[in-house]
Amino acid sequence: MSYQERRALVSLLCTLLIPPVYARYALSGLPAGDPYAPEVLRFWGNFFVGLIVISVGVRVVITIVFSIVNTVFTRQVEPDITDERDRLVELKAMRNGQYIFSLGFIGAMVALAAGGTPSAMFALLIVAGVFASAVDELSQFWFYRRGV
Amino acid sequence: MNSRSSGSIDGACEVAGTPIKNNIRRLRFDHDEMTQQQLADKVGVTRQTIVAIEQGKYSPSLELAFRIARVFNAPLEAVFYLENPSDLNTPGGKS
């Protein structure tokens, strides 16, 4: 398994672990009562900002740890350049992720239009984001393994 | 151009879905057994990309193809070639 494949799997692991764990703790602060209250929207704003900050921080730490562990166990340093194949893989994987997120976004808007609460819409957006990110990383793994 | 490859005895590889083959492995051998890393350094890509090209998992850009050919001091057709040139007679590839 190449470095790029391992990196994609580690990134996938982050995607599948960070949002659920964060949501488990953060969602306990969701205001009860009126689902359309300004406090609810403020909560979701804080939720998203917190999720972004936590995700970036944890990913940086995990990436550093992965790089060290990978070098120790494989005796191979990570490639110091990103070449045309890496960029092509990244673009194609991102395209797949964007398809998924677009579907999720439409679903969230449909839910809102059908009378769903803002919380339902935001929850759908988060789920769509997680799925999109997972598809992106799985696509990277697939393209590196099977060819692009 | 993509996907899986089928190697052969002479080191040529075919990119599945396209009739393009390459002689990189043989050319490396003929050039003082140049390593994949050495070739990668000369053309400015990662070793994994050279591996993918040799295995037919990646079809390089025209620029990279020319860079590889230049390293071997060979024309492009000596490095990459069509297995069946008559495919070019059919728009879009094989009929």
Overall structural class of chain B, as computed from helix and strand content, comes to alpha+beta
User: How far apart lie the N and C ends of chain B?
Assistant: 16 Å
Structural class of chain A: mainly alpha
Largest sheet of chain B: 4 strands, antiparallel
Radius of gyration of chain B: 13 Å
By DSSP, the count of extended strands of chain A is 0
Q: Provide the low-confidence segments of chain B as ranges.
A: 1-11, 13-17
Would you give an account of this structure?
The complex is a heterodimer of chains A (148) and B (95). Chain A has four helices and no strands. Chain A is elongated. The model of chain A has no long low-confidence stretch (mean pLDDT 93). Helix content of chain A is 81%, strand content 0%. Chain A is an all-alpha fold. Chain B has 95 residues and is α+β, with helices and mostly antiparallel strands. In chain B, 39% of the residues lie in helices and 13% in strands. Chain B contains five helices and four strands. Chain B has helices spanning 24-30, 36-43, 47-54, 62-71, 76-79; strands at residues 5-7, 13-15, 20-22, 80-82. In chain B, strands 1-2-3-4 form a four-stranded antiparallel β-sheet. In chain B, strand 1 and strand 2 (13-15) form a beta hairpin. In chain B, helix 2 crosses helix 3. The interface between A and B is medium-sized, with 13 and 21 residues.
